[in-house]
Specification:
Layout (H helix, E strand, L loop, with lengths): L1 H24 L4 H5 L2 H24 L9 H14 L1 H4 L5 E5 L2 E5 L1 H31 L5 H15 L5 H15 L5 H16 L1 H15 L12
Antiparallel strand pairs: 1-2
Helix pairs in contact: 1-3, 1-4, 3-4, 3-6, 6-9, 6-10, 7-8, 7-9, 7-10, 8-9, 9-10
Length: 226
Amino acid sequence: MDAAVDGAIVLLLGALVGVAELVSRYRDDPWRAIQSRPAVLYVLVNAGAALGALLLARVFGWTFGVSTGGEAARWTQVLVAGTGAMVLFRSSLFTVKVGDQDVAIGPSSFLQIILHAFDRGVDRLRGQQRSQAVARLMKDVSFDKAGIALPVYCAELLQNLPAEDAEELTKKPGTIATMAVTEQIKALLLGLAILNATGEDVLAEGVQALRTQIAAGGGEAPPPNQ
């Protein structure tokens, strides 16, 4: 019974570690990112690696410095396997020569390849979704009119936006303005920059609030949900 409980806890911890990694990488809309199929597979691989680490710890009697044994060693194995499976798997089985470098080959190498493939899958899906969202929200928005007002307004809507993110966002329009692309593309790039910092919902609200001031061609930009 204890083994089943330990396994369930380790699977949960491993899954949570996978979710946390994805959330940290796709900050504009983490919940949508983790609902994709590649994200689910990414989380499952993390959970499986955690369970595998626990099995190895039990088979080889790894106590991770706990000398008292009993419950202390048991829960240490559970916590280390659940949260640090990739660290445990970093021991190399053999080394191969690639060019002038020695590359260690071990369980973590194969796990990292699999996880990276799933992560790229999540990134591609989010890229498609972000492109569609920005094209819809920034339609008929003038870069010249929105370049300063829109990013500042969206940044001010958030109370806890990190100072470095806010500073980077305010500098982005100047960088975009120097690019040799059309005004429409500049508007899309501005939308992506704001989306990265604030998320889709805040960008939509910002465009909605300022649409009479930032519309292209002197008209009024349509509501962003159209």
